[in-house]
Each structure stands twice: as C-alpha cells, then as structure tokens.
Amino acid sequence: MKSVFPQVAALFLLCFLSSCSVDSIENETDGLSISNTEHSNVKVVVSYTSIEKEIQERINQFRSNLGLSVLVLQDVITEKADEHSDTMIKDGAASHKNFGARATYIKNTLGADDVAENVGANYNSAQGVVTAWINSDSHRTVLEDDFTHIGISAKKDTNGKYYYTTIFSKL
C-alpha cells in the first residue's frame, strides 16, 4: 500500500506558503493605493482605475448631500468586487450570484457588521451607473445605508461592455 503522507505534507506546505503571500493587483491605468484596515491580516493592494475612483466620488457626493458619511475604499472588499465582475463577464449578465459567500468572507475577514452590494452593466460611464442606482429604490437604499467602507470594480468585457460591482460594508 502506498503512503499518501508525502503528498499530504507537500499540499499542506504549499497551502501554508501561499497563505502568507502578499497579493498585488496591477492594471494599466493610473491608480490610487489604499491600504486595508487593521481588522485583517489579509494584505491586498489594489490600483483603482479612474472610473472606479469617479464612482466612489459620485457615491460620496450623493451621500454628502444627504448628510451621510463618505465611504472609504477598502482593498479586500474591492478584491471581492473584482472577482464578481469577472464572474459577471464570464456569465455575460449582471447578477448577485454567490453574494452570500462574498458577504461571509468580508464579515469573517474584516469583522464587518453588515454587507450589501449594487451591480450593473450596460453603462458607459460612472455617472450613468451611479445615476441608475440613485434612481432605483432598492439600489438607493443601499447607497443611503450607514456603511463605512466600499469596494469598487468596473471591468470591460472583450466587446467593451462595462460590468460594475460595488460592495458596501460597515466595519
């Protein structure tokens, strides 16, 4: 009978070494690096595109006009938003597919009290997608909630169609 111990030991070592790595997401656009909160040992550095920064600015302007606090970019949350935008691109449709798993990860990793998300597709600008969320009762409710942090992803598919994921969290 063959021993599986060497394979199990190698797999354990590989998992251990990869869990200690520092993730870095780079893209070709100018970016703003925002460090993650002290709630987590997970280290992620994200470069934000100009459209993602504009989405944050427009959401924060909307919130400021209502007397609400501005939302701070959070890289771990943005990483989850990026993953979901990739899924929507792969599926060819906007959705909240597997939102529960994203919310659980953010709650467990960052100690979040609450998590919500808005998604969109077929808008060519930050203004377009944010205006659509503001004009939708269910999306506006998320924008107006007492969240403190946000993760933002705006990605294009191969045809140039944008897919948007914004994940809101109360840390």
From TrEMBL:
Pfam families: CAP. Residues 1-21 form the signal peptide. This is CAP domain-containing protein. CDD domains: CAP_bacterial. Keywords: Signal. It comes from the Bacteria. Coiled coil: none annotated. InterPro entries: CAP_dom, CAP_sf. PROSITE patterns: PROKAR_LIPOPROTEIN (PS51257). Residues 57-165 form the SCP domain.
